Amino acid sequence: MTSQRQSPVYRSRLQQSASERGPETHPLTWRLRDDGQVVDLEDYQAKEGYRALCQVLEAGDPRAVITTLKEANVRGRGGAGFSAGLKWSLTMQGGDMPRGYIVCNADEMEPGTFKDRLLMEQQPHLLIEGMVLAGYANNARYGYIFLRGEYVESARVLAQALAEARDAGWLGPDVAGSGFDFDIALHTGAGRYICGEETALLNSLEGKRANPRAKPPFPGQSGAWGKPTVVNNVETLCNVPAVMLRGADWYQRLSGDRTKDGGTKLYGASGLVNRPGLWELPMGVTGREILERAGGLRNGRALKAWLPGGASTGFLLPEHLDLPLDFDTVGKEGSRLGTGLLTVVTEDQSMVSLMRNLEEFFARESCGWCTPCRDGLPWTVKLLQALEQGEGEAGDIELLDKLAADCGPGLTFCAHAPGAAMPLQTALRHFRHEFEQGVRHARGKAPADAIPAGDP
């Protein structure tokens, strides 16, 4: 049954028509309909849907799935870029091991990110097939889609697709007559950004407070309800069917000689660009190409800086636009690829206002479990508010440096605080003069010639 509902903002986010996409070059999006309607079960099966699952089940070798995924070098598309095949290979398996879980992290709350929503709302069966393949490879018999609570349309579409898959025998006992049992439950969250961290997500799934867990043990050894658990992002799982259908070599070739990272990526752009949206492109394309596809900046504005993959990544400069956007290259420049969705900052936007806005979000979304995050982020917000109003005092900027350093990797339970610190550290490094203006200005006067972040 095809959905007749429309979500006009997100239905138009993919800025590529069907004529530009094909199964050999666009494994994530080639099935999408130009009218924005849901690719239902009938349509999905007519376009190679569940064919990879049938081949894998017929071969009867779960370990081969993990081997193929490692050879393809499928890296996590949720932001960390960790090898999905390696993660699966570390899951405790064997005849004496309890059967675990596959958890899809669909808690897409990263500011500036909207790629997973497109996949779930328009192509839900691709995610379902990827999860069943993950379950077969990892000795799991049950899966959960942990969905951001605000994604009401995604929940409706996924619930319909799960029912279709059960009725057709792709979920439930004896999947496709193979003797393998696997089912999926849809779990909507209560709207907390911290649930994007995999162990906080698992606590929330179990009905507990969404605090991160100390590691080790890692979820692959002791995850949901103490059983081996694989947690992967929506886009990561959506890559699995095509890899299993066409092989690791094919997947590696998709990125060509741009990068050693295989496959394609849903890249995007938002902010003051003419055509915000998403494009499925080979891994390793440049920021310049993405901004060109977005139609450039509005009203002839000049680019000041850009975030390569959501609010928790570090700022890059215009001279970085020709770097390949892959995990390692962006990391060497002091940032992270993250979700691969660019957010632009123009010359007429205040970096101090932008950082105050971002840090307010991170401070509000802290779970409060560890001191640098719980106390340091609100303190950061107060300092930025003072600088924004021209009321900063001598030493405030140095204190911001220290607070950001105290929230760095290895000093907190999870990556929330380091994610909040990275844009602040890079903003202070590249645009320190803007922060210094907040100390010198008279009371109540904002930095000159600047508009607050987010204003049109």
Automatic annotation (TrEMBL):
MF annotations from Gene Ontology: 4 iron, 4 sulfur cluster binding; FMN binding; metal ion binding; NAD binding; NADH dehydrogenase (ubiquinone) activity; quinone binding
Start and end residues of each stretch annotated as Disordered: 1-28
Catalysed reaction, written as an equation: a quinone + NADH + 5 H(+)(in) = a quinol + NAD(+) + 4 H(+)(out)
Enzyme class, UniProt record, top EC level: translocase
Cofactor(s) listed in the protein's UniProt record: [4Fe-4S] cluster; FMN
Top-level taxon of the source organism: Bacteria
Matches recorded under Pfam families: Complex1_51K, NADH_4Fe-4S
Keyword list, A-Z: 4Fe-4S, Flavoprotein, FMN, Iron, Iron-sulfur, Metal-binding, NAD, Quinone, Translocase
PANTHER family membership: NADH-QUINONE OXIDOREDUCTASE SUBUNIT F
Function recorded in the entry: NDH-1 shuttles electrons from NADH, via FMN and iron-sulfur (Fe-S) centers, to quinones in the respiratory chain.
Protein name per Swiss-Prot or TrEMBL: NADH-quinone oxidoreductase subunit F
Protein source organism: Marinobacter gudaonensis
